[in-house]
Every structure is written in C-alpha cells, then in structure tokens.
Amino acid sequence: MSITEFAELFEILSEVFLDPEADVKLRLSALAGGLSDDGGVLERLRSPIQEIVRLGDDKRRLAVEYVRLFMHGTTNRTVHPYESVQSCGRLMDHECLQDLRNLFDRADVRPREDVAMPPDHLGLELEFLAFVLGNLASAPAGSVSFEHWRSIAADTVDSHLLPFGRKIAAHLDEADPDPYYRLSSQILVAGLEQLECRLAGDALEVSSGKTR
C-alpha cells in the first residue's frame, strides 16, 4: 500500500468522522480495488471496506447514529471524538493541544478556522495526517524534505492517532454502533497500524507501482 493510498484513506476517514452525510463509498470502493496484496495484511483493510460499500445508504439513520455515538450518547456512553478526552479525561487538555500545535508548526499549517471544534477532533487529526502524507508522497526520495515529512507523519501516528484510534475503536465497540461506524473504526486502526510499520521501514512505496 503506497503513501499516496494511505493519504487517500485517511482523507476519506476524516470525512466519515466529521460528517455523517459524507458520501465516501465510491471512493472507498475504488481505493480497495486498487490495493495490491501485501502478505494478507491488507485483508484487514479490504474486507471491512467491502462490507461498508455493501451497506445501504440511509443518511438520516447515520446522522441520528452520529449524534448518539459522538455527541449525546445514552447511558453515559458518548464516544468523545477528542484526543484530550480519550487520553486525559478532559476536553481541551493543554499538553495535548500544545503537542498538536508543535506538529502543525513543523508542517507550517494552522488549524482550520471554518470549524467550531478543537484541533484534537479525530476527523481533524486525520485530515492533518492526510495532508502530511500528501507532502511526503511528493517529496524527492532521500531528500531533506522527504525525511521532514516522514518524521512529522511518524510522530503524528505514534504519539497521537494510533493510541487515540485504538481507544475510540474500543469505546465504539462498547456503544454497540451502527455497522458503518464499527467498520470505519476497524479500518482506522488497521490503516494506522500498517502505516506505522511502513513509516518505520527503510523504503517507502510512495505511489502505486513505485517504490522510493
């Protein structure tokens, strides 16, 4: 799986966790169809993606489920989509947000001003990762720029999104989610785990059919 494909995957997942009405099935299907076999590891991604694609399209149901899961859960089972809450038990934790700001500064980006949510929202962190991976994919192999973006991507995954994603997935399981969100969380964790291994490797496949 190439870095370009990882960027597309996490851009799609960012929409899933930001907007319950986002139309992502065609993009997921196209992505899954183009993935090459990787010793069986990719089956952890391809199988849940194919299951999502087969689900019915009921945007109203997903909107109601989104509110139940991420905003007003029943019996105190709200799955808070904020890293601060998942990691520290409180919203807008200073240390968590400052660490993210440091990553944004290294990437020379600023948090989006058109959304009324802190930057540690799962969807926004995934959007940031997709941006970083896009820059990594376009950087010349072995260059200072390549290693710069690779370092930011690795730190984002290792220090933030992978532990965050695992906690979200565990809490979603406890909340008995709609299959759409259960499968999305499986794809999230499987994708992050595979990306972590890929970023730590000596060679990175940047785009389909090309190894750098």
Number of domains: 1
Question: Sheet bearing the most strands, described?
Answer: 2 strands, antiparallel
Distance between the termini: 13 Å
Rg (C-alpha, Å): 17 Å
Quote the average pLDDT.
88
Structural class: mainly alpha
Order of helices and strands: HHHHHHHHHEE
Low-confidence stretches: 208-212
List the keywords.
TorD-like, globular, disordered C terminus, two-stranded antiparallel ribbon, mainly alpha, 2 strands, about 210 residues
Q: Briefly, what is this?
A:
Helix content is 66%, strand content 2%.
Q: Could you give the topology of this structure?
A:
Layout: H1 3-18, H2 25-34, H3 43-54, H4 59-70, H5 83-88, H6 94-107, H7 122-138, H8 144-174, H9 179-200, E1 205-207, E2 210-211
Antiparallel strand pairs: 1-2
